[in-house]
Amino acid sequence: MQINIDRTHWYDRIWAALIFFTRLPFWRLHQPPRECYATVVEHWPLAGWITGGAMAATLYFGSWYLPYMVAVLLAIVVRMLVTGALHEDGLADFLDGFGGGGSSRERILAIMKDSHIGTYGVIGLIFYELLLAAALMSMTPQFAALTILAADPYSKMVTAQLVMMMPYARREDEAKNRTVYRKMSWPAGISLSIQGLLPMVAYIWYTGMRWDLIIFIPALVMYFLYLLIWRKLHGYTGDCCGAVCLLVELTVYLVVCTQ
Fold first, then answer.
1. Buried b (16+ CB within 10 A) or exposed e, 174-201
2. Which of 91, 129, 158, 231 is 20 to 30 A from 82, comparing alpha carbons?
3. In the chain, what is the straight-line distance between the N-terminal and C-terminal CA atoms, in Å?
4. How many other CB atoms are there within 10 angstroms of residue 248's CB atom?
5. Helix/strand/coil (H/E/C) assignment for every residue in 60-126
6. CB-side neighbour CA atoms (13 Å) of 108
7. What does the pLDDT look like over 183-234, one tens digit per residue?
8. Beta-carbon-side half-sphere exposure of residue 181 (alpha carbons within 13 Å)
């Protein structure tokens, strides 16, 4: 049955994205129609303004009272609490599936759907968090906070392109949330770009960082991950989106560390 998404209001779609991508009690304030959840990727970077803002504020203000390393770790924990570790769960499933599934599409999808975490997922999450913490600790508190505010929405904007580049890898009734993201219209694409690029452009202008490296290297990482996902699955899953988002964001921090 085809759902007419266009009958929903823009503010309903924003509410759906905030409810879907965070664990903050937005659902107590408003309950959008169920069909709005097919559009949440269109406002994913906007949710990143909140998750990135919570992480950046914790790191910056925490560094006033705590050792910087403690503030960085606390900031990472706060973001996981705000998101419910949604993307970290996706990264673990992605690493387990692609690490242990071999060349079998069905096996990769089965492993990714399994709620248990495997060796690849554990080791991958440990190294991811270590690299994230090390990258942030290599910056000053103010600079790290500004970088987070730019990197979080930007990585979500870049990752959202997977929805346009590939079909969903499973059937709709097999999706974890019984929802398949819809393809974006050009107004939605423009809105997505503004949400993701506005903080990044402001960050580059304020800090004077090399825009070409910060913009294109994370996008290149997304493209290579897209090629891997396409070769193995011929489609994306929610876990793939979460994993790519974190890896693209980590790339931003690593690029910043080299400048």
1. eeeeebbbbebeeebbebbeebbbbbbe
2. 158
3. 51
4. 23
5. HHHHHHCCHHHHHHHHHHHHHHHHCCHHHHHHHHHHHHHHHCCCCHHHHHHHHHCCCCCHHHHHHHH
6. 22
7. 899 999 999 999 999 999 999 999 998 898 999 999 999 999 999 999 999 9
8. 29
Rounded CA gap, 163 and 238, in Å?
Answer: 10
Q: Are 252 and 214 in contact (CB under 8 A)?
A: yes
For residues 206-229, b (16+ Cβ closer than 10 Å) or e, as one string?
Answer: eeebeeeebbebbbebbeebbeeb
Reported as half-sphere exposure (CB side, CA atoms, 13 A), residue 210 has a value of 10
Buried b (16+ CB within 10 A) or exposed e, 4-40: eeeebeeebbbbbbbbbbbebebeeeeebeebbbbbb
Nearest Cα to Cα of residue 162 among 246, 228, 252, 222: 222
User: pLDDT tens-digit profile of 138-156?
Assistant: 999 999 999 999 999 999 9
Give the C-alpha separation, 36 to 126, whole Å: 35
How far are the Cα atoms of 1, 31, 75 from residue 119, in angstroms, in the given order? 40, 39, 26
- Residue 259 is predicted with a pLDDT of 81
Kindly list the distances between the CA atom of residue 190 and the CA atoms of 36, 69, 187, 194, 244, in Å, as whole numbers in the listed order.
18, 38, 5, 6, 21
0.90 exceeded by pTM: yes
pLDDT of 5 > 60? The answer is: no
Residue 208, sorted as left (phi over 0), alpha (psi -120 to 50) or beta, turns out to be left
